[in-house]
Amino acid sequence: MLLKNGRTSNPLDPMTRAIKEITGKKTKTDEDYEKLSDLEFEASLYWDDEVGVHFPAENIKAMFYAAAKKIKMGRQTHAILLDHPLAPIVFPNHKNLKKLAADPDMRLVNMVVIQKRKTIRTRAKIPAGWTCTFTLLVDEAFMNLETVEQILEIASIQIGCGDWRPGSPSPGTYGTFVIESIEELKGVVAA
Predict the structure, then answer these.
(1) pLDDT value at position 188?
(2) pLDDT value at residue 159
(3) Are 57 and 47 in contact (CB under 8 A)?
(4) pLDDT for residue 187
(5) Which of 148, 101, 96, 105 is nearest to 127 (CA)?
């Protein structure tokens, strides 16, 4: 799975400013390109010092919504909430930013087209075998468990998560997943 945090869209973000310092140079050294790759890698991660690498709840909701639209249930997704704003993505070293940044297998360095110009970009590449567990709070007046399961199955294959996934504007082959289990928790009430 590839990650691409949208934080670099914010011109005031410290990562954006650090990247701009390098990209603004007319002549770049090899060290500049290495530093740029490091900055792009770190900026592409969804990172929290306590949780480590994660998906924000809004990303999971967006994936769920895109899958629900495939069966004309998109409007009903307003009845879905996540119990926590961050869903940890678990894989080796997922809480150790220094080890992740030092591991070349954690990066995809690839040519991309931005405004009709080719440029090299670095994305965080999460290895196969990652897991992500989250709790959906569902209003059963709008959606039953069978429909939730159907939507998650669609999401796992047709939508995916992260960057360059099947359901992205520039479709790719990353970010598909297998659902290991779905459990219904009775008696959970959100206030």
Answers:
(1) 54
(2) 97
(3) no
(4) 57
(5) 105
Using alpha carbons, list the distances in angstroms from residue 24 to 20, 36, 41, 96, 114.
6, 11, 18, 30, 16
Q: Looking at the chain, how many residues does it have?
A: 191
The DSSP output letter for 187 is: T
Q: How far apart are CA 182 and CA 60, in angstroms?
A: 15
CB 37 within 8 A of CB 28: no
| Rounded Cα distance, 191 and 181, in Å | 26
Q: The tokens of 175 are what?
A: 């970010």
Q: Which two tokens stand for residue 55?
A: 């998906």
H/E stretch holding 67: helix 57-69
Six-digit token string for 2: 């590839």
Count other C-beta atoms under 10 Å from residue 127's C-beta. Answer: 12
The pair of structure tokens assigned to 134 is: 């989250």
pLDDT of 88 > 50? The answer is yes
Please identify which residue in the block is written with the tokens 């899958």.
Answer: 67
Cβ(93)–Cβ(99) under 8 Å?
A: yes
**Domain boundaries in the chain?**
2-159
- Cα angle for residues 145, 55, 12 (degrees, 5° grid): 140
d(CA 26, CA 10): 23
- Coil, helix or strand at residue 2: strand
